[in-house]
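User: tokens in, sequence out, please.
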């Protein structure tokens, strides 16, 4: 069973607390993807969203991937088999 998890990235941007809470949410069983909405006061253009996604992925590690749709970042937890192939 997967539950829908959404977070909002606001004017403070990526803080250590935000990244730690994101990591803790993925540790819960059943959580495979999280939607992060980048609010208007946290971005000026689409490049800011790409920058945030890259920083999030760098923090979480190789077992994760992301997809950007509009001004939302979908962070996906990869299966163990696929994560080994990406090394």
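Assistant: Sequence out:
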């Amino acid at each position: 069973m997967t539950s829908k998890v959404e977070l909002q990235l606001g004017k403070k941007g990526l803080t250590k607390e935000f990244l730690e809470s994101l990591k803790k949410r993925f540790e819960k069983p059943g959580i495979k993807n999280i939607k992060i909405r980048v609010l208007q006061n946290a971005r000026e253009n689409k490049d800011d969203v790409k920058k945030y996604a890259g920083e999030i992925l760098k923090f979480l590690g190789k077992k994760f991937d992301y997809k950007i749709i509009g001004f939302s970042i979908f962070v996906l937890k990869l299966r163990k088999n696929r994560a080994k192939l990406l090394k």
